[in-house]
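Notebook entry, structure prediction.
Reason for the run: the old model in the group folder had no record of what sequence produced it. Starting over properly, with the input documented here first.
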Amino acid sequence: MAKGTYTDQDFLENDHGITGQYKNWFLDYASYVILERAVPAMEDGLKPVQRRILHAMKEMDDGRFNKVANIIGQSMQYHPHGDASIGDALVNMGQKDLLIERQGNWGDVNTGDAAAAARYIEARLSKFALEVAFNAKTTEWQLSYDGRKNEPVTLPMKFPLLLAQGADGIAVGLSTKILPHNFCELIDASIKYLKGRKFEIFPDFQTAGMIDVTNYNEGKRGGKVRVRAVVEEVDKKTLVIRNVPYGVTVSTLCDSIVKANEQGKIKIKKVTDTTAANVEINIELAPGISPDITIDALYAFTDCEVSISPNACVIEGQKPRFMGVNELLKSSADKTKDLLRRELEIKLGELQDKWHYTSLEKIFFEEKIYKELEKKHETWEKVIEAIDKAFNPFKKKLKRDITREDIIKLTEKPVRRIYRLDIDELNAQITALENEIKQVKHDLEHLTDFAVAYYENLLKKYGKGRERKTEIRAFDTITAKSVAIANTKLYLNRSEGFIGTSLKKDEFIAECSDLDDIIVFTKAGKMKVVRVADKVFIGKDIIHAAIFQKNDERTTYNMMYVDGESGVTYGKRFNVTGITRDREYELTKGSEKSKVHYFTANPNGEAEVVKVVLSPNCTARQKEFEYYFEELEIKGRSSMGNQVTKYPVRAVKFKEAGKSTLAGRKLWFDNKFGRLNSEEKGEYLGSFEDDKILLVYDDGSYEITDTELTQRFEPEKIWLIEKFDPEKVITAVYFDADKQQYNIKRFRIETSSMKTRFPFIKEGANNRLEAVTTDEDPVLNLHSGKGAQAKTQKIKIAGFVEVMGWKAIGNKLTDYSKGIEMDWEVRDAEEKPQGKLF
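New structure, fully documented this time:
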């Protein structure tokens, strides 16, 4: 091929060909989107469009509000992507209520309502923005896209704005998601960092609610936070939601609730959105539905709980960089410290220049050097030389050389008679300047302290009203299966071996949810666990089917079967806790002709008595005998069991119900999540059979409840929780605000209503519970006074106060005194005091 000629393939593959151009163009496009549109800069925490908007607003700033349409027009001189992108970015910044003050309808982050048109709303820079984001002397400038104007490369931001506002962006091949953090906490963390102390920062949202930051991982890739709305129980029939999770609007939340109800995952009568200035969504429950279970179901099946995966990505040195929020805050604090240093250095230079010229001016007039202007000199240059020569005796007093510009500036001063008062004023100015210079130098030498003081001043000026809105707390894990409402019916065809929701002409088993698993046993001694479905084949001759509860150690199966190979009959008792779904399990020895003679499922390990009838043709002397299942140990499902008889069995008949062979269910109270549990988490409450639980609350009320594990409690409001004993006496001390005294009472619970609060202290606006216990013989320590005047009085309550009715006001204990404290005496070193005290 001749030199300089190319084939079509060469042209396609060459960098100057089509393929090469597409490769280069795409890389250029990707780079542009990453650097100039989607990802914020680490230096000031702003995307280009945000920075250009703020710069345009600073140019327009005269203290008054400007129409947003005008701001957009001004910003278009710097941002080449049209008014829509500028308007959206401006509204987004305005809704964060930090850098921009607003007038008019700017929309609502809770409801998702859009802002009014740009011609109807107004904005101006906040005082906070003017203080932390602008300083022309420390700003690096560049030409705008059309070369007509200068715009900032980055703003000199002296605050961790990126962490305060958060950021969201999708570029080419990467994205960023930085969650907003609390204003006050960011300043506190910056101060701690500058002082060399450890700090932690966590997200905080305008929408309030609750957040679990257990897996936040400093906002890095792979981290996750869970965010919940606060769902309150108004009464047993009504729930109310007063906020929405971050990123969720009222309408989408309501839609998710309606959808979950239509799918049968929750059961409610009505959802009413009465949101105005504040979020308020009322949920009316269906009859017989537990509020606690519904709250759990709302978190499990609706947008009342959402998971957010942060991904902190910023532009540093014209490259994207993934980093954590702690590192971002440290970088911001270091940047702020450097900017403050530069501002101080600039100020020092200006003060020194001012001191120099003021000193020159003083010498010029005080030493009458200005008279050189009255002398006859040949040229103007000679005049300047004469003035400069006249300054020679005084140049040692100055801190730099006298320049030609200095002398020209002095000659421009009006020559007039100089009074002593004028000289005194110049001396005062020099003294003031020297003091300022001294202070600036001190600040430069103690730059960290200066930066800390700067942050403290920001917090003092702008921190009020910016306290944390989102409550940080650990969330319990709600399994969807445990809170799913039974929304369908399960049927069984025993002889054919089918089970499912579509077999409506066959035997009804139970109501279940779409998420449930079903455990099934056949006469051949097979067991299988399957998901709820329209129709599933298990095996012919089904003898038992029920909803399966994983890790259920109380449901006990009593079974008697004959081994098909040996003809021996075995009895066994077993639990089924964990399985592999859709796998067939063998419960007999596995012989082909094995079959089950008798089978029962017992929810609390009951062990009945059965009558075993042998074949009349067998050689056994005793053709009938009783068999006691309680004599068998509960083992695993794969156990062979104990031999019952080697003779052929004709029938096994139920004779007598048995009692539970299991101990009561042991329960604990997890005061972290406010849940009862059997997994040994939290405070041990005891072994429960038909027992109830007593709760005493901080508002001076008590409640009796059952042991249902789906109940939700607020642990911070519970002062006492224990197994309920109606014979126990409760001792309580409370403050009577009306009489300014402490009262004490002892009483037994006489009410029988379950899950109802009963106030047992005197009603009053400021009345409060001080101490409570169920100790049989409590001793109260009453502490008063301080230092040498401190004293402790021990009071044996049982001998001091009689047992009275639960509604009684009680006896006076002592008058109110500032600084009085109380606690229960612990008489056994290993015994913990009951109840709770302030």
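Summary: The longest strand covers residues 595-602.
The old model has been moved to the deprecated folder.
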